Records
---
Amino acid sequence: MADRCGFTITVPNAARDRIAGDMGLNLEDAEVIQDETELYTELYDDSANFAHALIMEEWAKDGISFFGHHGEGCEYGAGDFAAHGGKCIQVEASQGQGGPLVPINRDGTIPARALAEARTYWDTLAEAKRALGITEEAKPAAESTEGYRFWCPACKATDSIDVTATVFVRLMQYQGDPDHIETDADLAHDYSHEWDHSSPARCDACGYCGKVGDFDHAAKEVA
Ligand SMILES: [Zn+2]
């Protein structure tokens, strides 16, 4: 059985011959991109059977750091992968190398496990790149949380937290038209928005969903 896809992998030069051999690539005519530092090489395989998913685990177990992306096959979707420290993390990804995909629950939250896997992938990718001598462009400075009480536990945003609140709104109805019901927040003159630590909250910057208490760092230090 074969189920093939396009496959791009960046490997340390020390492991390049072994990996190319395992992939069945002939380095003489394979598509190879060599970096100037001669530390790592990008290999491309246009017919990777089952996206080399099993052999990849072997490379990782032998302590090789690498990362890459593969397209979709007949029975599997596109994926991103990164390996470092003996572990290989494989995640579903968008076809166009846009990073890991996670499902969204019916209530708009993200399954905790999928989010954790995506984060592990990003962390492993950063470690693999460091091990290969690839320096990332400087990340934008993390937002300072100093002087604030609430911030997103995932991305530390202090200005993008939305909380669900209970608020009185005026019920608007029309005589002779009982099915026509509207609500008006201004008419009710209720400027108090009731919410507490158990109110659902989300970060509009990164999509993190939780309870207000997850965003309240003063409460955590007290606890
Ligand atoms: Zn966030």
---
Amino acid sequence: MYLDANHSSPRQPAAAQIAEHIPQYLNLKVVRIESAHLLSVNPAASAQATARALSIPVRSLMARPDRVTHRTSDTEKWDQRSNVEGPFKDFDDFYARGVDRVPTDVRRYNVAGHSCEVIIPERYASELDAGKSEYDKRLGPADLPALLDAMPNSSYFRKIYLSDLRNPEDAWVNQTGFSTDFRAAMSMVNAELTTYMTERSSHLRRDVLHEWSHQLRYEYWDTEITERFKNAVDLESDWKPNAYAARNNGEQWAVLGERMLGNSGEEFLEAANFAPLRTIVYMRALKHCLDGVSADRRSIDHSYYVARQRYVDEKVLPVAQKKLLNLIEHGNEDEKVWAAELLRYLQCEGLIAAA
Ligand SMILES: [Zn+2]
């Protein structure tokens, strides 16, 4: 899920300008990546061995109450679904009539090792503390340290809200047709993650990485990454990782992020294989993110993320380049322009250069 009001498009060169320069992109060659030898994947390795080398260990997500400290209690306004049934004219109308801002007593927590603030309604925190059986599996503040440790840059979560209610926006999503019984488990708005009655599960790490990926995209909103990812999605429309991804490019990005950062080496390689262009663009953003995180705040999985990113620069880039050159020669007018845009972008990023 990602809910945001930021629909402005980042700057981009005019398509006509790109089309004019297409011939020069045909002469670009992949730049040798200086880190190639760092990968323990040897060229003759079987697909299974490569997948194994690129797997990320499944770690314990055990609760760490020792790393969570209750700081303050106060009151803030939380969005809550109103009694108005709808239907609603548009999103603004939904927010005006369908959502109330309700003063809510909350507790605020700090998490050792991370800059993120955790906020939970007082009524919910005391139910969790009381150990009621119906809340056995519910995600609480003490479950967050292990999840934050796994994020490539945990500061992308400025705040985490643990809600004991449904996302009020479910009603809007249901009205607009994705599904009639859609229930968001989490959402991300302006670097603030909210969980909605979320339970611990085997896919919790993956789900949090999905939300984290939304923020990764927004961190680089002012660069070309958003537009180039759109080109990549349009050029690779034959690969649909799941139905939810098809909602929009933000979901395409976040669903891809589950594969790029998830534990399974096979699923990572499958995505890279079916969608090399999307993979290349996503991994550009990840590289900039990983380069920017200070050594004392690195993820416990940092070296695995770096290995995957380098694998993409080394092994997936030549495949992507070949695909783009082929599209420039044989694609339709739109495809030629999108492919050239992507090649120009890879050149700007220093990944390919004139022969
Ligand atoms: Zn999403």
